DUF3775 domain-containing protein
Amino acid sequence: MNIAEKMVRSLIDRARAYDSKEQIDDFERDADSGETDAVESLLTGDRDPIRTEIEDWLGSLDEEAQAELVALYWIGRGDYDGPDFRRAVREARSRRSGPTEDYLLGAPMLGDYLELGLDSVIEADVFDDA
């Protein structure tokens, strides 16, 4: 693989933090309330720092590593089995039509499916750590 297990696990943690937030684009601060900072930390949108961090990290990866992450997501989602990892990577490369970060950050349960996919690939003994 072009991406290390440790890096995938780190992405899983960040994706779960991002997935736990609620998408709200029109939130306005209440100047009279001290609770707005707590509320804002649970919201996400275009300016979310976790989203930006994930986008930057994914964008810095080469196309092969990005395809591997998409394949792990698909395996975790149940589209492929762990032993089919290489086939899923080839399919991810051929079906790519836009930025990987947009696809993955728009995918439901990203962190959970990545973890299931990674565990399945490791269990199938087809994961060779970068």
